[in-house]
Design a protein that fits this description.
Length: about 180
């Protein structure tokens, strides 16, 4: 079974994959196919956990490839904290792409925070819509990650070292 950690970015997805290294019956990677196009972009090995915020823009293709056969996690973090993190990255990456490409060069009078909050609302709505008919799904909040990760571990039938995985959440990866 494939597992997809759908998220906006800046919400613990890098840490999620690091923690998943303590699972022995799944491989796990962060943005491992983000450089590919076409069908190669969404073909993942069996029994693999993938976190990639860009998948929120490829949900139609993800549905065609995996449908209800995969397990989906919607990883979220407090929107104010996430927006603050994105504000620090407003001139590059997904924030720049969203401002210049999706919002077609949003006016300078729109603040970086407004852009970040709009991006978060858009991505979360896309993910929620995608998940509405999925039978294997779990919403996980970074603010409640210890309890939520235990539930995730149980639902996917993870094997490995749960204690080490939970301890791994004390380390922040890719922090702004």
């Amino acid at each position: 079974m494939n597992i997809f950690i759908l998220n906006s970015g800046r919400c613990g997805s890098s840490s999620f994959i690091k923690v998943c290294q303590h699972i022995s019956n799944y491989s796990a990677a962060h943005e491992s196919r983000s450089h590919l196009t076409g069908s190669a972009r969404i073909i993942y090995p069996d029994n693999h956990i993938e976190a990639d915020n860009r998948l929120s823009w490829l949900l139609g293709r993800l549905d065609q490839q995996y449908g209800d056969a995969a397990f989906y996690v919607h990883l979220i973090r407090d929107s104010s904290a996430t927006a603050s993190s994105f504000e620090k990255r407003s001139q590059f990456g997904i924030m720049r792409a969203y401002r210049e490409g999706i919002l077609l060069n949003a006016a300078k009078k729109i603040t970086d925070r407004e852009i970040a909050l709009d991006y978060l609302d858009t991505v979360d709505a896309n993910i929620q819509c995608f998940l509405k008919d999925k039978s294997r799904k779990l919403t996980m909040r970074l603010e409640n990650i210890q309890d939520d990760f235990r539930e995730f571990w149980q639902q996917i039938g993870a094997q490995g070292n749960l204690t080490e995985a939970l301890n791994g959440w004390q380390i922040h990866h890719n922090a702004s």
